[in-house]
Specification:
By secondary structure, this protein is an alpha+beta fold. Helices cover 22% and strands 21% of the residues. The strands form 2 sheets. Strands 2-8-4-7-6-5 form a 6-stranded mixed beta sheet, covered by helices on one side. Helix 3 runs antiparallel to helix 4 and helix 3 packs parallel to helix 5. The protein is globular and about 65 Å long. Keywords: Isomerase, tRNA processing. Its EC number is 5.4.99.12.
């Protein structure tokens, strides 16, 4: 990884062990991820301070699209992945584009503009209620995901208007940005993208809100509607809570 390579350039006395809280699919963004690393300095050299680590790592990360926001010392029992209490993801939707060429240039690859105009947001919110709580999310997992328990707990799911770069300046007023924000302890591979895609299908009238409950009850990834998964570029890991 970029971060592990940058840490090795700080000349540690042993190979750096690096663990990230959440791995994102190709094309997915992270506003704020978390990681921990074990970095040893040569005998006689003081341990890096958090400020030194931020400066040193960012220096070597300059060519890459990633930056360290903060760093601090943690106990040896801390693990970035397993100690996380919850993770919050944000999916950005852009409505009002008749064609993908109408997506504002500064928003390209940062949102999904589903075809078909406006969405029935009240129906989407009704459908979202079926996803809340603890369920077997087998239908919403990738066919090629790891063999892990499909039972997950969805703590929050909000569908709300969102800001857009150009919309803030009064341009492209026909366009609307909406955000689907989900929070849970952990998610299955591509679960969020499948949930958002299914909710958008409800908003387009292709599925009824009750269909979401039926998909959950089927507990079969093969039952998921073809081509309903939301693309990667609209998804952001917003935060990891400890």
């Amino acid at each position: 990884s970029w971060l592990q390579e940058a840490a090795q350039k700080l000349k540690p006395s042993a190979p750096v062990k690096f663990h990230i809280s959440s791995r994102t699919d190709s094309g997915v963004h992270a506003l704020a991820n978390a990681a921990h690393l074990d970095i040893q300095r040569a005998p006689g050299k003081a341990a890096f301070t958090g400020h030194q680590l931020v400066q040193g790592l960012n220096h070597h990360l300059r060519p890459e699209p990633i930056r360290i926001l903060s760093a601090q010392r943690v106990p040896s029992t801390f693990h970035a992945r397993f100690c996380a209490l919850s993770r919050t993801y944000l999916y950005r939707l852009l409505l009002g584009c008749a064609h993908h060429s109408q997506v504002p240039v500064f928003e390209r690859d940062l949102c999904w503009a589903p075809a078909g105009g406006s969405l029935d947001v009240p129906a989407m919110r009704e459908a979202a209620r079926f996803l809340l709580g603890t369920h077997d999310f087998s239908t919403f997992r990738s066919l090629h995901s790891e063999q892990q328990s499909p039972v997950r707990t969805l703590l929050q799911l909000h569908i709300q208007p969102g800001p857009g770069l150009l919309a803030q300046h009064g341009q492209h007023r026909r366009l609307e940005f909406w955000e689907v924000e989900v929070k849970g302890r952990a998610f299955l591979y591509r679960q969020v993208r499948r949930m958002v895609g299914a909710l958008v299908a409800v908003g387009q009238g292709k599925l009824a809100p009750q269909d979401i409950q039926e998909l959950l009850e089927l507990k079969d990834a093969r039952a998921f509607p073809p081509h309903a998964m939301a693309p990667a570029q609209g998804l952001f890991l917003k935060s990891v809570e400890y």
